Amino acid sequence: MDVLIVGAGPTGLACGIEAQRAGLDLLILDKGCLVNSLFTYPTGMTFFTSRERLEIGGLPLPSLNVKPTRAEALEYYRRVTDFFHLPVRYQERVISVERAEHGFRVRTSGPWDRQESYSPRAVILATGYYDLPNLLLVPGEELPHVSHYYSDAHAFYQRKVAVIGAANSAAVSALDLFRHGAEVTLIHRGPELSRHIKYWIKPDLFNRIKEGSIRAFFDSSVKTITPDHLCVQKASGGLFHVETSFVFALTGYHPDFDFIKSTGVELDSSTLRPRCNPETRESNVPGLYLAGVIIAGKNTNEIFIENGRFHGKQIIADLKQKLAG
Question: Which of 7, 140, 189, 227 is the most buried (most CB within 10 A)?
């Protein structure tokens, strides 16, 4: 095998398309389903970006609107995978990537603890970041009525719901919950709504807070979660309680830095950016390439599908040249 790609998200698929076009023998592995992160997005979600910026392999993304929905994107990436006959194995988690005599030895674990081993000449890590939430690390975070992912508002009609965070995910979720009849309280440790909220969403949320439809507490940090309330501390030092029956802790996500380090890739001590050639995307480990948001370290708002989809061209151009040599 010439190249093994870890991650079947849009970036991993784009890398697979380029590898196939270059005539390389490839395999794509994912610990979940196809475009697993997109699958876990809210069911009624509309993308922030236009359809042409989500396209890979030169195939158009059909959509009834300028900005496609989650359902349209999932159908599109299924169609792309079928069109290019990409070899993808699902529910197979990569547990180790090690240098070997003629490339790498990659070990995986699948359903029923089935173990597999592969020996590719090169490896591309395109593992994304949506699987690992930034934890609050407070008592009660493990309770069953606390979630780090938002799916659908219907189940929370006429219920008291707390949303922790104030970036895009929290903003969209709070608005959706409010419009479906939930009593929403937004809690954020910062002094105001995040500057990263999309420009057409931020005024909507700001006005709902201003009119009192959504209650919001800024400069406030959750200290304890109980089955029926949150204990919250103001930056000024005061404590207060927020009654709630469900909590969405939407405080962001991060790449699997421990796994990346385990492969031998060096990370910057402050930003956690992996050492990576910006022209080829090859890491400090020869033959091990990085694609997508993982190259941004902690700054996950720098890389999206829109720009990560082009990393495959850089990687495969370099890899093809090296394999030919």
Answer: 7
